[in-house]
Amino acid sequence: MQHTPRLCLFFWLFLLTFLSSNAQETMPFVQYYTNLYQINPSYAGIDGQAHASLVYRKQWLGFPGGPSGALLTYHAPLRIHMSYGGQIYNEQQGFLNITNLMGTYAYTIVLKEHEAFTFGMSAGFSSTSLGLSEMGNITDPALLNAKLGFGILGNAGFNYRKKNMLVGLSLPGLFATNQASSESFAVKSPLLAGGILFHATDRIYFKRDRYAIEPHVSYRYYLNNPGQYEVGVIAHLNHKAWTGLSYRQGLGLAAMAGVKLQNKYMISYSYGVRNFSENSIPYDSHEIQIDLLLGRRLRGREYLSFVDDHKPKRVRKVTTKHKNLAKHMDKITDEHEKSKTVVDTVKITVVDTIHVWKEKMHKARFDVAEQTMDSAQLAQDSIALEMAYQAILAEEAERKAREDSLSNISVEDKIHHSIITDPEWKEFILGAGIYVVKQQFEKFQEAVAYSDDLLAKGYFTQYGYHVDKRAWYVYTLKTTDKAEAELELDKWVRKAQFKEAFLIEIE
């Protein structure tokens, strides 16, 4: 039942999409599920590593002059908070040839673990030309006088991510060039030409996370035209293949499938069935796509990749349990301080009591001697006083023993003993390996605070406890290759704030 809220969300989003009527073709490619950067610049770097993709679409196969398009994209994370990307798009619409080129920058704000907000923006230009020579004898003044050339392009978007769920909103055409005008394209740039695109998806894993279902819902709103909705569902199959089905209003059904190799390469194909409505063009469409993941995944960057569809692992050990352990350390310290306070209080009380009893015994003996009390009464009173006095001395000896015990076992010793004996702390203890350490701390809380501060500045770190040194280390790399560790260390010590970085080796 843990997925019920998610399914309810998609159910209501699905109902909302039916509020529109009369749609038109708005998204050039069907397989954008595999590369969400195609529809929203804020998804740049979502794979946690570089992602290159090439897709070709042939629409209305068999229709003379049917449009075809190709899109080449590349995007990658730059740091934990920053990403970049670029895309080249070419489309043939009869005698009209359109080429777009755009670059992208995206910035991520980490709200908390597994939850983030990302904003992205792209800008570029468009080049348009007409194949007049292929048209034969042209006499239409509109075509002869058309000033086809360069224009400016731009789009923007943001997305909210929580674990495997994504909700995004984008402006696919902040401004776009009119493609049929007797004026310069750079002048005619209507605002929000691409409308407003809403998209939501989630990935639900099952069967030991080897399979997953991924529903998608999107809706594009236009200022002066009817909107358009799309629903789709993808099935990931044991990290080896995927298949899916989608329906886009005005375009019809599309079936798609792909294969994955080594969690880095993917080739996929989609077949769009013609829409049988009265106003549609009765021709099918084809689309083929190739995706590549390049380089290493950026450490510390949370990701959600379609090509490498393994369930994302925690990139950093910051959990509720860790916060509770920090509270446990504070509790040990507080109890230690309270014990010392109690001992000091008892010490004062016992010393005062001994002094009082000594005075009482001295006075009693003096009074007995003065009043020449009988020897039996004197002996009885002396025994009672002596017993009371011995009890006080025993209490004082116990106090001293407790005080000596506390002085011999410091709060640091208590915490160290707790770390090495409590299973809850096991994952914090540094194992065998070579570590590139940025700084050393005595207290767990200080190490966490420093590591969090570096994360906020875009530096990925971990932290752990060195049992022999009884110290907490904030480190950036753990490896068994000393050459790799020295290379990493050299990179950090060149920066002014990390000149004190050093290596440690644990056997």
Automatic annotation (TrEMBL):
Signal peptide: 1-23
Keyword Signal: yes
Family matches, as InterPro entries: PorP/SprF_Bacteroidetes
Annotated keywords: Signal
Protein name (record): PorP/SprF family type IX secretion system membrane protein
